[in-house]
Each structure stands twice: as C-alpha cells, then as structure tokens.
Here is the input.
Amino acid sequence: MASVRDPRPIVISGPSGVGKGTLYKLLFQRYPDTFTLSVSHTTRGPRPGELHGVDYHFVTKEAFLDLKANDGFVESAQFGDNLYGTSKATIEEQTAKGQTVVLDIEVEGVKQIQASGFPARYVFIAPPSEEELERRLRGRGTEKEDSIQKRLKQAKVELEYARVPGVHDRVIVNKDLEAAFKELEEWVFAESAESA
Ligand SMILES: Nc1ncnc2c1ncn2[C@@H]1O[C@H](COP(=O)(O)OP(=O)(O)OP(=O)(O)O)[C@@H](O)[C@H]1O
Here is the structure.
C-alpha cells in the first residue's frame, strides 16, 4: 500500500464543475486502500441503496445538534431542511485505520475547519478560466439552467476566497486532467514540510 507521510486529512475544494470529484476518484482508483472519503453526518433520511456509515452517518436532528453543541464537528451546514457535518471523531477513526481522509468541502466549510484549528492540509482546484468552468458544468449534463447559474455565481466566491494568501497549501489548475492529477499526487505524497 502506498503510504502518505503526512497524517493530516486533505481538504479539497474548488468551484462546482472544476473536476474535484474526477481528481480524487482517480486517487482512490490508483491507490486503493490508501485514501478514503470522509463520511459525513446528515439528518436527511437515507435514499434507496444508501448505507449507514458508508454513504453517511444518518442521525436524528437531536443527535446532530447534541454533537454540534459538544464541538463534535469540524464543519457543518444546512441545505434545505437538512443538516450536514463532518465529525472530528469520524476523521480520527478513519485516520486511525491508516487511511488518508479526503474531505470535499465548499468554501464556508473550509473557513470553518480553518477556524476550528483542526489539523488539515488544503488544496484548491482552479479552472483554467471561468468560460471553461461553464463548459464543463454544461458538458456534465447534470444541472438545469438555474442550477448552472447558481453554481457559476458561487464559483466567483470560491475563486475570490482562494486568492486570499495562505488559505490553501496548494492551488492546482485543472487544465489537462493527467497533468493536474500528477500535481495532486506529488503534493499528496510529499513530506509535510514541503506541503506547508
Ligand atoms: N481536466 C479536465 N478537462 C476537461 N474536462 C474535465 C477535466 N476535469 C474534469 N472534467 C469534466 O468536468 C466535469 C465536472 O467534473 P466533476 O464532476 O469532477 O467536478 P466537481 O468539481 O467534482 O463538481 P461538484 O462540486 O459539482 O461535484 C465532468 O464532466 C468531468 O468529466
């Protein structure tokens, strides 16, 4: 098993459609057993086929709020009527199994983790241009027009925050997929001192 020297979880962020999922799925494929996606808590009910502890930790609103009050989350957010969060214990348990935890988080979550002081390293995936980002979002074919517009607006917020010095340890422009993957791979496996 390939080993990552730096035990901290990897927080990967970037605008919707930039290719974050494509990139970390390649990490999972090429290094099976080395990486794991963090399993979030949610108050929404499971969809058919979703498994507790695999897709999410499905919890009641009371249990969620209790954990939050006890400072149990590195980040949490509300989408619609449902609460979502990444628990510290989950990251610690997954890390204790010898795996490197990958968190796919939007900008508000990144800010919360940074404010929490929980040790992590941060990589931002940037598009070659806003036009190319729009092309990819459309090309993916998963979004309706109003969702595309919302994501493009949010992309500006994400890109702006990424320009603040020091918020990310590494920024990778996802132009050519293999080249971007190679950069991610090298950074992930580097000594921690090099990634700071
Ligand atoms: N380097 C690349 N060149 C061209 N197309 C790419 C590249 N990387 C990813 N794509 C394509 O861009 C689209 C968006 O990628 P992906 O779904 O991985 O984005 P994401 O950042 O994970 O989005 P979301 O945050 O909405 O989940 C996909 O259709 C993917 O195949």
User: Anything to note?
Assistant: The pocket of adenosine-5'-triphosphate is lined by residues 14, 16-22, 136, 139-140, 174, 176-177, 180 (CB under 6 Å). The two ends are 24 Å apart (CA to CA). The longest strand covers residues 73-79.
